[in-house]
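job 3f2a | input accepted
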Amino acid sequence: MSLKDKLEYIGYHVTKVIEYRGNTIVIARSGLEKMIFIEQDIDNSVLRKLCEIALPLKVKIYTLNEKYQVASIECSNVKPTRDIIRKIRLLDELAEGTTIPHLKSRYKYCGRAYIDLVKLINWLKSRKLLEQSGQTVKTKRPLTLDEKVEILLKIL
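job 3f2a | predicted structure (156 res):
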């Protein structure tokens, strides 16, 4: 039984399933609280990256054992990098509306980082989440937790 099926079986509402480096990451909701669920045998580098993302987004990471018991994962020893915090701030700034040259200068995007910015803009356009007129870009609505986690893991 997959992690998604297990969570649905015990009553969680699964909002998104993300495959990242061969690991399944499930974003689920119980009441008003959203949480990230991972498999027990997840790679340490993926867990570290998830902890760096989860702390600034104020979401907790959990795992499920064979007896369907939920266990919280402690991320207290991991601090989010400045880069992750800047990327989250960038996503929030896109929701308010800004210009591409402003983003380039503010976040010092040049070379490889500018390519990441272009990939982000193209990803948002492909999902019809971005309004663009000339150099001005703005997301049609604030990005959900699911979208932010997926963007931070896969695109940025």
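job 3f2a | Residues 82-155 form a domain with the Arc Repressor Mutant, subunit A fold (CATH 1.10.10).
job 3f2a | closed
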